[in-house]
Design a protein that fits this description.
Layout (H helix, E strand, L loop, with lengths): L1 E6 L2 E8 L3 E6 L10 H7 L3 E6 L15 H15 L7 E5 L1 H13 L5 E5 L8 H17 L1 H8 L6 H6 L1 H9 L6 H13 L4 H6 L4 E6 L7 H6 L7 E6 L6 H4 L1 H12 L10
Parallel strand pairs: 3-4, 3-5, 5-6, 6-7, 7-8
Antiparallel strand pairs: 1-2, 2-4
Helix pairs in contact: 1-12, 2-3, 4-5, 4-8
């Protein structure tokens, strides 16, 4: 089911699937909600899935001010509209969606049962990363969205995927042609401006899922692993054949990981 919600003057689209305990899946930069299609197919028989189109993507209107914090407020509004009293959802974010997830946890941790970072990071952009994003903005302005995504998106997949399943990369690209240039530029600026949120992981009492890709060049494995020691209770998984797109590259493995995490204890083993 597709629904709409007016948030601060912008119409935001989100999708509802299945029934059961609530889980929200938040897509990342240069993606739309259908990046989670394999997870929706596997999970909707057991869980109520809430899958937003982030502002500016997938038909959702852009916000006047784009930041990780303002997009976290969008998630809060959707939860307020959809959750029953007393329900505590699980929140999972991929890549930039993970940055938004951490901004949400910073303000609304008590709303959640647990949360997860899928190919994402709590760390702020390094100076090198900021320069890469600035070059990306210049490329988008000069050449447009299609050329930008065609030149960058294949790098999100592992060498194994690109060699043995080139159709997956091609189909992913085919679904991204209608993302506006201004949206991608606003996302880039927001990602460059976001703070380090290591303390959110260090101070959180919630279980945290980390899913990392062995061949991820956007969130290198060594950097992703650094953050996994911060929470009181971490669930850590490395997808051996994935780059940055484990939802598509190792869909069955990720679905298994998610189902196990959803059913895991919500308190530290040493808690009474």
């Amino acid at each position: 089911m597709e629904k709409q919600l007016l948030i601060n003057g912008s119409t935001i689209i989100y999708h509802l699937y299945g029934q059961g305990a609530p889980v929200m899946l938040v897509h990342g930069f240069g993606e739309k909600a259908d990046v989670w299609k394999e997870q929706v197919s596997a999970l909707q028989s057991r869980y109520s899935l809430i899958v937003p189109q982030l502002p500016g993507s997938g038909g959702s209107e852009p916000l006047q001010e784009v930041s990780m914090e303002s997009m976290a407020e969008v998630l809060k509004n959707i939860f307020d509209a959809e959750l029953e009293p007393g329900q505590k959802p699980i929140l999972l974010g991929h890549s930039m969606g993970g940055y938004i997830t951490l901004a949400f946890v910073e303000k609304y941790e008590d709303m959640l049962q647990s949360f997860g970072l899928i190919h994402s990071s709590c760390f702020a952009d390094s100076d090198e990363k900021k320069e890469t994003r600035k070059k990306g903005i210049s490329f988008i302005r000069q050449h447009g969205v299609s050329e930008f995504l065609e030149s960058t998106s294949p790098n999100l997949f592992s060498p194994d995927t690109k060699t043995n399943n080139p159709g997956l990369v091609k189909s992913f690209l085919a679904g991204l042609t209608d993302i506006p240039a201004d949206t991608l530029i606003d996302y880039y600026k927001a990602m460059m401006a976001r703070p380090d949120r290591s303390n959110i992981l260090k101070n959180s009492s919630l279980p945290v899922l980390f899913v990392l890709g062995r061949h991820d060049t956007a969130i290198p494995l060594k950097d992703g692993l650094r953050q996994t020691t911060f929470p009181e209770l971490s669930y850590i998984h490395v997808l051996e054949y994935s780059g940055h797109m484990g939802m598509l590259e190792e869909k069955s493995k990720l679905n298994e990981i998610l189902l196990n995490f959803f059913q895991a204890p919500v308190t530290h083993p040493n808690h009474t």
